[in-house]
Amino acid sequence: MLDAIDAVDWSAVPGPPDWYEPARAARGLRALACAANLVEAAEAGSLLGGGGIVHGHSAAVFPAAAVAAPLLLEMAQRGHPAARSTALGLIDEALSSYPHAGYTRVTTPYGTAVPICCAIAGHLRARAALLAGLGKRTRALLADAADHWRFEVRECVAEGDDTAAFGTLAGRFPAGVHAVELHLGGEIAVLDEVALEYPPVEDSSEACLRVKGRPPGELPPGALLFPAECGERVH
């Protein structure tokens, strides 16, 4: 764990210069990984919550939170109970806080310019099976993460003036018609009216979205959709 923390150049992770403190991120994560009691976990949490990955007093989250999320989840699974509680609290805070302008997005294995909240939710979903067994608090966190959904287009067909987009849905698309971000080739566009046509069934992630007033050519295979409201979150 310490090697994984040290492998990150926290000073190279972007963040608002008057708020983000890379040294706090590195020291806080190392301290939390080694915490063996409540006091040590609290001290580590203070470093991380006071400018390391979030700034608790102003409810701001930094891109470093998305980088730290898998490390915190590892601590939640394998660390001291006090460290687990602190790690889960920090992830919860990061997921619900708003980023500063200019520092709202991060690069992930599945896309660039992903909203920080959606990137954190992706890390939570990646460990959902294990996290679900850690108790009520973790299950609530997974439920919150589901609202930060991601849809990858596999194929599209025209349906009148609309497009039926078939693909995989991670998370939970809400009922009704919503604005979504379309990520394609490094560009971001907003689609104003998108609804869930067919939800996933059983353990499948296959779903269909109806994109109103758009031709299929605008949503080629590999295009990613995210909630537009997540992209609009600015502190």
Measured between the Cα atoms of the first and last residue, the distance is 31 Å
Largest sheet: 6 strands, antiparallel, barrel
Number of helices: 9
**H/E topology pattern:** HHHEEHHEEEHHHEEEEEEH
Mean pLDDT over the residues = 94
Count of folded domains: 2
- Tell me the fraction of residues in β-strands, as a range: 25-35%
Structural class: alpha+beta
What percentage of residues falls in helices of 4 or more residues?
A: 25-40%
- For the CA atoms, what is the radius of gyration? 19 Å
Verbal overview:
The protein has nine helices and eleven strands. It is of the alpha+beta class. A six-stranded antiparallel barrel has the order 6-7-10-9-8-11. A three-stranded mixed β-sheet has the order 1-2-3, covered by helices on one side. A hairpin with a 2-residue loop joins strand 4 and strand 5 (111-115).
Keywords:
235 residues; six-stranded antiparallel barrel; three-stranded mixed sheet; alpha+beta; 39% helix; 9 helices; elongated
Secondary-structure blueprint of this entry?
Blueprint: H1 2-6, H2 22-34, H3 38-49, E1 54-55, E2 60-61, H4 64-78, H5 81-96, E3 98-99, E4 105-108, E5 111-115, H6 116-126, H7 128-131, H8 136-146, E6 150-159, E7 162-170, E8 177-184, E9 187-198, E10 206-211, E11 224-227, H9 228-231
Parallel strand pairs: 2-3
Antiparallel strand pairs: 1-2, 4-5, 6-7, 6-11, 7-10, 8-9, 8-11, 9-10
Brief overview, please?
This protein has helices at 2-6, 22-34, 38-49, 64-78, 81-96, 116-126, 128-131, 136-146, 228-231, and strands spanning 54-55, 60-61, 98-99, 105-108, 111-115, 150-159, 162-170, 177-184, 187-198, 206-211, 224-227. By secondary structure, it is α+β, with helices and mostly antiparallel strands.
